[in-house]
Amino acid sequence: MSNSHPPYGEQPDPNVTPWSGPPAPAAGYPAYGQPGQAPQYGQAPQFGVPVPPPKSNRGLVIGLIVGAVVLILALCGAGIGLALVGNDDEPDPTPTPTAATNPGPGTDTSASPQPSDPPTEQPNNNNNAVTARYSSDLSSVCDGSPILNAATYSGPATAKAYVFSNNPERPTFWSSKLVGSDKRYYAKSADFTTVSVVGCMSMVPGSEGAPKKCDYKASDGKNVSVSYISSRYQLTFYAAKTAEKIGDGGTVNAPATRCPSFISYNKTTMKAYAAPDSGTIEAALDKFLS
Q: How wide is the angle at C-alpha 78 spanned by C-alphas 74 and 79, nearest 5°?
């Protein structure tokens, strides 16, 4: 069958300009492309009848080229794929991925390290470590318990501090000692997680002075006489987060020269111990945290 005619149902290639057809056959024979129809006598043979062009083999050729390239790439082990697939009339505007080139001698082919997050502080391995829920919980440092959610101590110049003292008759009970709110190291009770320094004051054994008698009326209406006792306290500074000792604050006097308007005493011994002097505590903090 001649390549001049497309198969049944196939449309002529629109991308090929129609041609004017082959030369006209000799008179007395049907026109080429018009089988079974002979020209009428007395009429000139039909010239210039459009005949569909032969089918283009361009797609087949491109397919063979693509197959050859794929075969070559498969044999060479290259990593480029789909680079020749697409419209064969216009280049594909979408960038196609390219394969990595082979590194030169001495080139490290491992992945480049990515910037990592700043190292986080490791959990304290002290079994006595606790998480504070209130400002008073930081007194646990005075019993040797680190505070997991306290601020990290990075030096005295920026530290916030709390101070606690115990009672000789209740050595495990620690009461908070207030400092002036105008001090740089002052921290509100709600800001206890910003505290990195805890000062602990314990009474120096044998430092009790002569008791001072103070008379009061008890809550039940009875008159009572309380022995009000002076003493000295040792102030020690600890890092709140680790409970490690970081400094000494010296001794703080607890004077009992005047009977306080309100007093807490032991009903069995009828003794009460004077509180450490607030001015001396602040002076010790000023010196250590300057």
A: 110
| Total number of residues shown for the chain | 290
22, amino acid identity: P
**Contact call for residues 150 and 195 (beta carbons, < 8 A):** yes
- Token pair listed for 159: 């530290």
In the chain (290 residues long), the average pLDDT of successive 10-residue segments reads 49 50 48 47 47 54 58 49 41 43 41 36 74 97 97 96 92 92 96 98 95 93 95 98 96 96 92 95 96
8 Å CB contact between 121 and 152: yes
* Residue 272 and residue 254 in contact, taking contact as beta carbons nearer than 8 Å: no
Say whether pTM exceeds 0.70. no
Q: How far is CA 172 from the centre of its chain?
A: 40
| Structure-block tokens of residue 175 | 């009461």
Separation of alpha carbons 34 and 212, rounded Å: 141
